[in-house]
Amino acid sequence: MLSPQIIIEHLNSALLVFDKNLSLLTINTAGEILFDDSARHLVGKPVEYLFFKQSNLIDELKQAISQGDSFVDRELTLKLPNKSSTLICSVTPITEKNELSYLLIELQEIDRHLRISQEEQILTQLNTSKMLMRGVAHEIKNPLGGLRGAAQLLELELEDESLKEYTQVIIEETDRITALMNKMLGSNKLPNNALLNIHEPLERVRQLVQAEVSDTIKIRVDYDPSIPEIYADKDQLIQAFLNITRNAVQAIKEKGEVIIRTRISQQMTIANERHKLIAKIDIIDNGAGITPELKHHIFYPMVTGKDEGSGLGLPISQSIINQYGGLIEFTSDENITTFSIFLPLGTNNGK
Which of 12-21, 80-89, 149-158 is predicted least confidently? Predict the structure, then answer.
């Protein structure tokens, strides 16, 4: 039987317990992540230390202790040295032997609720994309073989060499559409998974894309060298990262930069599965951004904001990352677009 402490440690909400003097008694793992500090360092600290810029909240906590009142703040802005979060804050006084002894505070990130909603939408798009791409590709590929064969037979019957130019157009266009359908269906090869440093495929992508663009577009890197190795197919990851990075540089009209940044995230849930460690790869550009019309459909196939784009790059990247239990998300405004790739570490996903 699970102990209450184990259950508390695995909650996504940050839980903090203060004594009646408002000194911290305990904090769970989600709380450590939220405050970006360890329980060992935080326990024993006064409430002012954790909520040092929240004078109104501190006054309300003192009132809750003195009067035994519960309350909920649904839009608490928590300001920390390195970040700011919007939270739902629930405060509950706890009595022991008819005496108020503890104050329980539960903090839930509103941003996280929005992320979960976005994740569900993205996964729905991914599943729809897979079914759509496979269905369309098979329906189109079947008659293409007959069309190409008929053009070849017709070419053999033509005596006028000038007319063969038209049969060649049919054959070449048939081959082009077949290649596009194969791309939609994905590779038939089994992944060649091995332990690798996540920065190896990223560096390869950086070199490839930097060679394709002008000197006015710079690709910078900000790597965390402490990220553990991941078990994956290097070529697949190169393809996934390459699609996104190429989109990033194409969004920049003349001059700008793309930043490839890696970090570790802890205790993250993807598709209802909890992961202790996640490699987070951000591909950031200061280009034109994604139009509002595209934002809700960007991971569907054939959806693109480029005149000559196929609309397959992002769905294919999402499908590859999903094989490893990961996910791609994005944020975009007029100045900055960030595609965040989340890859679980310490698993053998993608086998």
Answer: 80-89
pLDDT digits 0-9 by tens, 219-251:
999 999 999 999 999 988 998 999 999 999 998
Longest dimension (CA), the chain: 104
Assess contact for 316 and 183: CB atoms under 8 A: yes
Over residues 40-54, the mean pLDDT reads 88
**CATH architecture of the domain with range 4-109:** 2-Layer Sandwich (3.30)
Locate the domains of the chain by residue range. 4-109, 189-351
Average pLDDT over residues 260-281: 83
Give the dihedral sign, CA 59/61/62/63. positive
Cβ-proximal residues to 56 (8 Å cutoff; 6+ apart), any chain: none
Alpha helices in 160-268 (DSSP H): 164-185, 199-212, 234-250
Alpha helices (H) in the chain, listed in sequence order: 4-9, 29-35, 39-42, 47-50, 55-67, 110-157, 164-185, 199-212, 234-250, 292-295, 313-323
pLDDT digits (tens, 9 = 90+) for 338-349: 999 999 987 555
- Report the percent of the chain where pLDDT is more than 90: 28
Dihedrals phi, psi of 298, to nearest 5 degrees: -70, -25
Q: May I ask the CATH class of domain 189-351? A: alpha beta
First to last CA, the chain: 33
Give every CB contact of residue 71 below 8 A, 6+ residues apart in sequence.
Answer: 60, 64, 91
With beta carbons less than 8 A apart as the criterion, state whether 208 and 258 touch.
no
